[in-house]
Design brief:
Largest sheet of chain B: 7 strands, mixed
Shape of chain A: globular
Strand content of chain B: 15-25%
CATH class of the largest domain in chain B: Alpha Beta
Distance between the termini of chain A: 44 Å
Largest sheet of chain A: 5 strands, parallel
CATH architecture of the largest domain in chain A: 3-Layer(aba) Sandwich
Oligomer: heterodimer
Number of domains of chain A: 2
Largest interface: A-B, 53 and 31 residues
CATH superfamily of the largest domain in chain B: PurM-like C-terminal domain
CATH topology of the largest domain in chain A: Rossmann fold
Shape of chain B: globular
Order of helices and strands of chain A: HEHHEHEHEHEHEHEHHEHEHEEEEHHHH
Order of helices and strands of chain B: HHHEEEHEHEEEHHEHEHEHEEE
Distance between the termini of chain B: 66 Å
Radius of gyration of chain B: 22 Å
Strand order of the largest sheet of chain B: 8-10-7-11-9-12-13
Number of domains of chain B: 2
Number of helices of chain A: 16
Chain lengths: 383, 355
Amino acid sequence: MKYVDEYRDRAKAQVLVKEIERLVSGIKIAERRPIQIMEVCGGHTHSIFRYGIEGMLPKAIELVHGPGCPVCVLPMGRVDDCVAIAERSEVIFATFGDAMRVPGSRKSLLQAKADGADVRMVYSPMDALALARGNPAREIVFFGIGFETTMPSTALTVLQAEREGISNFSVFCNHITIIPTIKAILDSPDLHLDGFLGPGHVSMVIGTAPYEFIARFYNRPMVVAGFEPLDILQSIWMVLKQIKEGRCEIENQYARIVSQAGNSPALEAVARVYELREFFEWRGLGSIDHSGVKMRASYARFDAERKFAVPNIRIADPKSCQCGEVLKGVIKPWQCKVFGRVCNPETPLGALMVSSEGACSAYYQYGGVKRQREDATIEAGVT
Amino acid sequence: MNIVPFIQTRPRGKVHVPTVTLAHGGGGKAMKDLIDDVFLDAFDNAHLAALDDQARLNLGALARYGDRLAFTTDSFVVDPLVFPGGDIGRLAVCGTVNDLAVGGAVPLYLSCAVIIEEGVPVEFLRQIARSMASTAREAGIEVVTGDTKVVNKGACDRMFITTTGIGVIRADVDLGAHRAMPGDHVLVNGLLGDHGAAILGARGDMALQTPIASDCAPLHDLTAVLLAAAPATRCIRDPTRGGVATVLNEIAEAARVAIEIDEACIPIRDEVRGFCEILGLDPLYLANEGKIVAVVPAEQSQRALDAVQAHPLGRAASIIGCVTVGEPGRVTMHTLFGGRRIVDMLVGEQLPRIC
């Protein structure tokens, strides 16, 4: 398949893996401990598992699966709010598919649907707007979720609704921003990360400039990466090359999509419709300052939070859940006390088990050949 | 002995209203007219025409086919009712025929129970019944008994069909997932995921125009060809809901073996690959309605492959992997890219990813 197969070429992958092995053998820290590289984006996590990339890398490289799955990090209280809105008789609640399974304290949207709520799966916020046009007697609420990747499409839909004078459409805004989140991770005291793979789709919107602080103030290299397996291997190679050469820069592997300045019409739409929240609650990471956006007062009539009274109750993460430590790379998913036992994709307890992009769910479903290898070593008493 | 019961010819009733109403499920003349007009007219066989409470099948005649009965049932609730490559009627016949065929049985008789929501156009019902009848002819099977219920608006989604099938298994055929052994080869008869992609595309809620048609087809002839070429075949399964990934996991679990498949050998058409790429779905989990997964001993696998490829429903057949002594129940895939990953059971429904 054109434009896809070129990025999945096995022979090129083998060359890159050889180059990666050569680089790693020359990096000093790898003699003491694994080099930890975090992929921030859930899309990368998914690709890494889907193509079995972890198993191709030398053991001295440890990929840490970051917080970049917006579905995973949504806290229970917000899901409860969603369910409360969806259960109103006048509401059609439109949502992306994989957000339907996220557990709230009472139920998920999937369960709410089974109990009679009118929950519809859509592929784009524009589909939700079409529902609003087609059902003038109902209130259509779109579940706005995601990082800067999906933020512009929600904003543009609101602007379109405004132009058309549609009054039965609103957004339950749970959009979050990437930069404060990366900063929160970098500020945590138990951090060992040596470098980052930057999120490709978010960067398509915001550009690469906002990441400069990572290199300048935290002395960590970052490479903005594409989502095909060769993209990921090449980006890992680029991060390692920086480490080897003692550089800390923001590099762009995904130049075919991402520019330094980002996408200005998208950023304008975002700035027009949203403003930063003082703080936003994350599953697994707690409250992070300025990490979420809400609708500006001038778009209040499209804001489901203002339109409908929501319970807005903060619900603490389950105590046994170690998502935060997994997110920061302190422990591996299967080292969590509840992994695979109480917490599994059928009945997820923690954030990372919820979506197929979550690190724990990915481990559970796709497993890691590397993990099997490590488990076998542990069983054999070799450390 | 003749298994066709003696019947008196009688004039058949006719429905003169455009839509099905509750009266057509009431047990009176309206119902009889509907059965005559729609089902008897389409299925047209002596067993059914008697309209007794049961079809009576001659045991001696059945025993000529083999020494065990295969008996299976399935309900069909597909949405939309008509999709590229088929409709609920064709699906209802193929689904049950295939459940018999993959057990090594010759499919012989089918029942057809239909639950209809009031308001369904009678002409549409005729169209579905005709589709069932022509598929049954294709499968060499007769619809010999049935039932019709009409329910209130909203009590069902236009039409549900349940078919139950009876087939007979030859004395020398013994298939079972538990029989898979390390060294065996895993064969599929063609391009995977067509049905799942066709249905998702036809629902229209993804706003994607797909030229993909369902692979819905009766597989009894293909399985017979396979068993003739590879009599030591261990098991055959039809990878419907949950797709090939689920069936492989079930086989690995039942036989306490591992299965390794090679992504490079898995036949998937470009349209389905593209569809899955866009929606974030995995074609290994998409439903098929005209595919088999067969576990065949290595020494017979080439003959099996040649025979299946010579069949019209097996041209794109491929050996996709083998059974190994690895961790029992574990299915792994060597990716095209050169990595390796675990192919696990699907949890819940495949939901498209957001980004």
